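Field reference: "sequence" (input) and "structure" (output). Example, Multidrug ABC transporter ATP-binding protein:
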Amino acid sequence: MPPTPATAIAVDDLVVDRGGQPVLRSVSTRIAAGSVTGLLGPSGSGKTTFIRAVVGTQKVRSGTVEVLGHPAGSKPLRSRVAYVTQDASIYRDLSVKANVAYFAALYGRSRSEAMAAIERVGMGDHAHNLAGNLSGGQKTRTSLACALVIEPEVLVLDEPTVGLDPVIREELWDQFRALAKQGATLLVSSHVMDEADRCDRLLLLREGRFIADDTPADLRAATGTANLEAAFLHLIRELEKAN
């Protein structure tokens, strides 16, 4: 029997309210180290709230979130966890190189490591361009370079491919798979169901609850469907019948 993968992220009975209304309703999961986990669901389902809880920037009502054996957001995780937000977290008046070099310096990394991160995301030819003049896809890749320069053990990405053309999306997912192969743990949120098959495991979130936590293949088998969009719809209909 193969060894059980180590747990990188452990969430137990997580409850989050906003404005007095529940956003996450007692959700629990385990995310294996060295895997790509997709967090999928419609807008407003609680994806960003869940991600913020994992990186430790979300106030929670109850429950626990541990990352690499430490409470989410705690000091030991600062150089081990990277978070790429939905909107590019870069300085518009700095060049690509200056942006990544700045984040590299914060974590004691060198300028050569910054350039290596830029090349890694295919932005070498744009290193001297101002971030404010970049396209949406280039800004996303620059944000990713800022995260990769610290060589994180856990990389959390909030809808990193939204609004991007299919070629850039394909390139980014190739990067994500390569990172996981090297041992990093990725949590990637999306509302695009055709990205789900690229993940090792899926968390399907609806109205603050997980309605599935399974591999793509097992999810299709369990619902008797041919694709993951159909599987998601099947689960929603079954949930509506139960209620």
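DSSP finds seven helices and ten strands in the chain.
The two ends are 40 Å apart (CA to CA).
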